[in-house]
Structures are given as C-alpha cells and as structure tokens.
From TrEMBL:
The keyword Iron-sulfur does not apply. Its cofactor is Mg(2+). Its main location: nucleus. Residues 1-91 form the BRCT domain. PANTHER family: BRCT DOMAIN-CONTAINING PROTEIN (PTHR11276:SF40), DNA POLYMERASE TYPE-X FAMILY MEMBER (PTHR11276). Mg(2+) binds at residues 308, 310, 467. GO terms for molecular function: DNA binding; DNA-directed DNA polymerase activity; metal ion binding. This is BRCT domain-containing protein. InterPro entries: BRCT_dom, BRCT_dom_sf, DNA-dir_DNA_pol_X, DNA_pol-X_BS, DNA_pol_B_palm_palm, DNA_pol_lambd_fingers_domain, DNA_pol_lamdba_lyase_dom_sf, DNA_Pol_thumb_sf.
C-alpha cells in the first residue's frame, strides 16, 4: 500500500492540488503532512538533505524506510494508472558520504540485518565498537545538555545509532557494513566515517569544550539539571566549590548533593551494593517475612559500578506490601543509617495502565511508592576481609547476541546475581556509633548539623544514593523490567509495544488497547512472551 506525501517546496500551489487530485483518482492515498504511515515522498528537491531540512527532521534516519522520489516517478505512475516500480532514474541524490561508499563497495554486501528495536536484540556491556559508540554518546550528551528545541530528538537519534553499533557482532571496519542497518542517519554516518578514516572525529573533539565539561560536572550533582547548570555557568562559576559556597537551595537533594558531591560521585561498587541490599533485606524481612527483594538498575544488568543502588520490593501475598516502606525507613533511621530522602506515596490507579501517556521521559515515570535518598555505609565495607563473598556471585554462563549469532566472553559481559548473598555483615551499629559520638561532642544534636558540616566531619562512612521501590505483586514483573532498564531499553520496548502490538507497556503492566484488557505476568519471561519477544537477559539490556 502506497501512502504518498508530495512536498510542496518548489511546486506551485495549483500544480500541487492537481497532482494530489490525480493521485487520489488512481486510488492512491495522499496525505498533507508527514506522518508515520507515509511510504513514498515525491519532491522537486534534488537531494535527501534538503528533504530532511524541509521536514525538520533531526537526520535522515526517519526516512530510511521511505521511498524519497523525484516528480519523474510521480509522472510515470500517473501515466501507468498506478504506482510504478522504482527505477534508478526516479531516485533523488543521497548525501556525498553515502554515495561514495555505496559506489566503491558494491561487492561487500552485508548480509546482517539487525532487528529494528533494541528489545529484539541483545546489547551487552562489552561489545566491538566502543570507539564509535563513545563518540556518538558524546554527541547525545551534548544535545541533552544543550536542551534546545529538537535537541531531545537529536539526542535520541544519536543514542539509537550507538545502540545499533553496540549490538553489532563484529567491529565495524567499513561503511558498507552499515548498509542494511536502520537507525543510523547521515550525521552519525559522517562521524563513523571520520573515525574509520582518522581514528577520531573533529566535531566530537570540539564539542567537549569548556562549557561541556562544566555542564557535565554540574549536572552530575544530585538534583541539578541542565537549566540550573547553565545559569551557574552564566554566573561565571566553573567549580563545585563555587557552587557549594554560592548556591542556596530549598531543594533537599541539591543541598545534600552539593555537600556530599565527592562521596556521591565516587562510583558505588558491587560490594557496596550487596552490602546495602543485605542491610535492607535484614530489616525488611524482620518487618515482613517472605518479602521479595531484588537489586535492579545497572547492577542487575551486570555493571560493576553505578551512581546508586536500586532495590525493588514486593510480597507474594497481595496487599502485604502496604505500609512496608515507612516501617523499613523507620528502622533504618533508628540504626542511624539514613542521611536524607523523600518518601513518595503511590499515585497508581488502574487508569494508568491505559492512559495514553506520551513516550516522553515524563510519560514514562511510574507511580509506585518509593523512597529516593542518601544513606551512609562504612568506608571499609567494600574492602573488609571479614566479609565472605565466596559463592555469592553467579557468573552467568553465556551471553549470546540474540539474532546476530555472536557470543561475547562471559567473564567480562555478565555478572548479575539473582541469589540471596551469603556473607557476614559488618556490625553497622558499632561502626557508625563512633561518628555519632564525635558528632555529639562537636556539635550537639544531629538537627543542628548542616549537610556541609556533616560532610566535613572526620568520618568513617561514605554517603550513597539509594532508590527503594515497592510494587504490588501483580505488577512486580513489569516493575522489574522497568527498573532494570536501561532507559534506552525501556524506551524501545515501550515504543515496540505501542507501534507493533497496539499495547501499552509501563512498569505497572501491559495493556492490550485492541482487546481492552491487561495481560498479567508471573515472571519476567512472561512479560516478554506477552509481547511476542524472545527473552532478553538483564545483562543484554545495556543499550
Ligand atoms: N527508572 C524508572 N523510574 C524512575 C527512575 C528510574 O523506571 N523514576 C528506571 C530507569 O529507566 C533505569 C532504572 O530504573 O533503567 C534504574 O535507574 P537509574 O538508577 O537512574 O539508572 P541505572 O541504569 O541503574 O544506572 P546507574 O548504574 O548509574 O545507577
Ligand atoms: Mn541505578
Ligand atoms: Mn536509581
């Protein structure tokens, strides 16, 4: 089925109307503006770049699956009474980079076709194309930080391209290997080509200027987004110290984020994550025996470091989880572990399952009861020999790039552990006691200490960001997928559900919009089955 868009540029209004009428008379669907159902574009423009500009697209990636044709094709089709097969003479010029490579590498046709959505392929932490993906992710980061109009869609385009390269089962050595791959637009192709030829890309090097560096430093502060960071740079600030001394915030996250910047920007390692999980588990099990508790986020995807620890909790008996989080926090507070945080009540109602929220960042937020905060753990917990981690880490035996036939060395690729850990916890009460004594001697009661003063104390603990999330059991496996991420994987699997299945996926469930019913899942595998997807392991979701 042809769905035709005729670009008005360089075509007189009368002629344009005549063309549309002629096409409709021949039962061809003609639309007046660009949309996802368009299959053919007819234009007087001479090359693809101009079409991209006219349609205000971030790059030509969106047009990969669309025939962009000259008026000659239109005329031939009208004469024939129906759309004619596309011949060379009907095509408009592609970009220079494309043409050059298409021309001289005809023989090296690449048989590899990657599935379009990241949720249909494995993307592991270790892959073959880091030098390209790093460059593309700098372009992505820059667009995100700049945050002007259309920057978020540009950022996404860079990320999608990077994600495709991460799934490639071989190191990229020639532009011809990109031929059948989707999601790699002209801008990305230019960058890749330059890296292939020169080993680096000038644009990417130049992007990492003073402004970029400062923006990265500032937005790495807990609670600081690009808007505030920009203001600070406009004020002439360039260091954390200047912000610590000059910025007064009513936002608890920023106050603590600034004060504990050094702690919070020291990556959390696996041992620390497991240590935190163990403390939380011990308290949670006391309150609610039978609780299910799982580290999610980057650590579940096999990362060895992260910016925080994400812990998802539920209980197999429906309703038992209600009230758990407040009691858990009280116990952690009594232990003196909590520095600060915010408890968000659940805002879930069943309509969230069907609500047509945009696939935007905001539309993806979930409605679980959760606590985002900062806790303290002993400095020594990641190196303490008293802890026994033997047998606590199960290295998953293989990591196969699904759909590409590649297998990556498992020892570097996958580390996720689903088993409860076996170790002797430190006596936390004791180790933190020293500090509270010191505090009392120095400054009286805890309430009088500002985050900054607390950070400056001679202390034997380090501040760590923790996210605690509570889900009802019937939503748990969807929550698990959502909170395992990564963000790009979530974006893709949700887009896939919507576009390909007419379903709405969120961390609360999967809703079939055609049949008007929710699809329950009793395991993570069932989540994938419900969407007719091959199961992708957590460590294969590092898009
Ligand atoms: N997430 C979510 N809802 C939020 C916050 C996060 O669903 N309100 C999801 C994100 O999509 C992400 C996962 O939970 O995939 C973990 O989020 P985050 O901790 O921000 O990222 P990580 O992937 O864990 O990265 P890091 O290791 O740096 O923590
Ligand atoms: Mn995380
Ligand atoms: Mn998190």
């Amino acid at each position: 089925m042809v769905c035709l868009l005729i670009l008005p540029s360089k075509i007189q209004k009368r002629r344009l109307e005549d063309m549309k009428t002629a096409a409709r008379k021949r039962n061809i669907t003609v639309v007046d503006s660009f949309c996802s159902s368009v299959t053919h574009i007819v234009t007087e423009h001479e090359n693809l770049d101009q079409v991209v500009k006219t349609l205000k697209l971030a790059d030509s990636g969106t047009l990969d699956k669309i025939q962009v044709l000259s008026v000659a094709w239109f005329t031939d089709s009208m004469k024939a009474g129906a759309p004619v097969p596309v011949e060379e003479k009907h095509m408009i010029k592609r970009e220079k980079a494309d043409r050059d490579n298409g021309g001289n590498e005809n023989s090296g046709r690449n048989p590899l076709i990657l599935p379009e959505y990241a949720c249909q392929r494995a993307t592991c932490l270790k892959h073959f194309n880091h030098k390209f993906t790093k460059a593309l992710e700098i372009l992505q980061k820059h667009a995100e930080l700049r945050d002007n109009e259309r920057d978020s869609s540009r950022a996404l385009a860079f990320r999608r391209a990077s994600c495709v390269l991460k799934s490639l089962p071989f190191p990229l050595t020639s532009m011809s290997q990109l031929k059948n791959l989707t999601n790699i637009g002209d801008h990305c192709k230019r960058v890749i080509q330059e890296i292939l030829e020169d080993g680096e890309c000038r644009e990417v090097n130049e992007l990492q200027d003073d402004w970029f560096q400062k923006m990265v430093v500032f937005t790495n502060i807990f609670g600081i987004g690009s808007a505030t960071a920009k203001k600070w740079i406009e004020k002439g600030w360039s260091t954390i110290k200047e912000a610590q001394e000059g910025y007064i915030s009513s936002d608890w996250r920023v106050r603590w984020g600034l004060a504990f910047h050094t702690d919070l920007n020291t990556p959390v390692n696996l041992q620390e994550a497991q240590y935190i999980q163990q403390i939380v588990r011990k308290e949670a099990e006391t309150i609610l025996p039978g609780i299910i508790l799982q580290i999610t986020g980057g650590f579940r995807r096999g990362k060895e470091e992260g910016h925080d620890v994400d812990i998802l909790m539920t209980h197999p008996e429906e309703g038992k989880e209600v009230g758990l989080l407040a009691r858990l926090l009280q116990r952690l507070q009594n232990k003196g572990i909590i520095l600060c945080g915010n408890l968000e009540k659940s805002t879930y109602s069943d309509e969230m399952l069907t609500l047509d929220s945009k696939l935007s960042a905001k539309g993806q937020l979930d409605h679980f009861e959760k606590w985002l905060g900062i806790i303290k753990i002993p400095h020594s917990c990641s190196e303490n020999p008293a802890m026994d981690y033997s047998g606590s880490l199960s290295i998953i035996s293989s990591c196969v790039h699904k759909g590409t036939g590649c297998s990556v060395d498992n020892s570097t690729c996958c580390t996720a552990s689903e088993q409860p850990l076996n170790y002797q916890p430190l006596n936390l009460d004791e180790s933190l006691d020293l500090e509270s004594k010191a505090k009392k001697q120095k400054l009286g009661t805890e309430n009088e200490i500002s985050p900054m003063e607390l950070a400056k104390l001679d202390r034997n603990w380090i501040a760590r960001r923790v996210d605690l999330i509570v889900s009802p059991y019937d939503q748990y496996f969807y929550a698990l997928v959502g909170w395992t991420g990564n963000k790009q994987f979530n974006r893709d699997i949700r887009t896939y559900a919507q576009r390909e299945l007419g379903m709405k996926l969120s961390s609360h469930g999967l809703y079939d919009l055609n049949k008007n019913c929710a699809l329950p899942a009793r395991s993570e595998k069932e989540v994938f089955q419900n969407m007719k997807l091959q199961y992708i392991e957590p460590w294969e979701r590092n898009c």
